[in-house]
Design brief:
Blueprint lengths: L2 E8 L5 E8 L34 H11 L3 E7 L3 E9 L25
Antiparallel strand pairs: 1-2, 2-4, 3-4
Length: 115
C-alpha cells in the first residue's frame, strides 16, 4: 500500500491550508463512511486492541482538533481504490474554546506572574 501526503495553502488571499492524506489500500465501504468520525467506531469490528488493531478514536480526535481550529475534515473512499482524508483550516487558526475545556483554569503550583 502506498501513502501520500499533500499540504498546500490555497485561496486568492492564501488564507486556507489544505492537508490531504491518501492511500491506495482497500478503501472504506460506502455504508461505513457516515460513521468514521464516531468515537469507537471501527469499520472492521474484528480489529480489537488486543489484536493490535485500532481503538476507533483516531478520526474522532482529529475532527475535534480540526473543528476547534475552525477547520473541516472529510473522508472520501471507494472499495479497492483507497481513501483520502482532507483537512481544511484557516491559516490563522487559533483554537476556539469548546465544551468543558473552555475557560482558564489555575495550573497546580503556578503562583501567577511574579518577580
Amino acid at each position: 500500500m502506498r501513502l501520500l501526503v499533500d499540504a498546500r495553502i490555497v485561496g486568492a488571499d492564501r488564507a486556507i491550508t489544505v492537508v490531504e492524506v491518501r492511500d491506495d489500500g482497500d478503501g472504506i465501504a460506502p455504508e461505513h463512511l457516515p460513521h468514521v468520525f464516531e468515537r469507537f467506531y471501527r469499520v472492521d469490528p474484528g480489529r480489537s486492541r488486543d489484536g493490535g488493531g485500532s481503538s476507533g478514536l483516531g478520526l474522532a480526535i482529529v475532527e475535534a482538533i480540526v473543528t476547534a481550529h475552525g477547520g473541516t475534515l472529510d473522508v472520501t473512499s471507494a472499495p479497492r481504490r483507497g481513501t483520502t482524508v482532507r483537512v481544511t483550516s484557516p491559516v490563522d487558526s487559533s483554537p476556539r474554546p469548546v465544551g468543558p475545556l473552555s475557560g482558564s483554569r489555575p495550573v497546580p503550583g503556578d503562583r501567577g506572574p511574579s518577580a
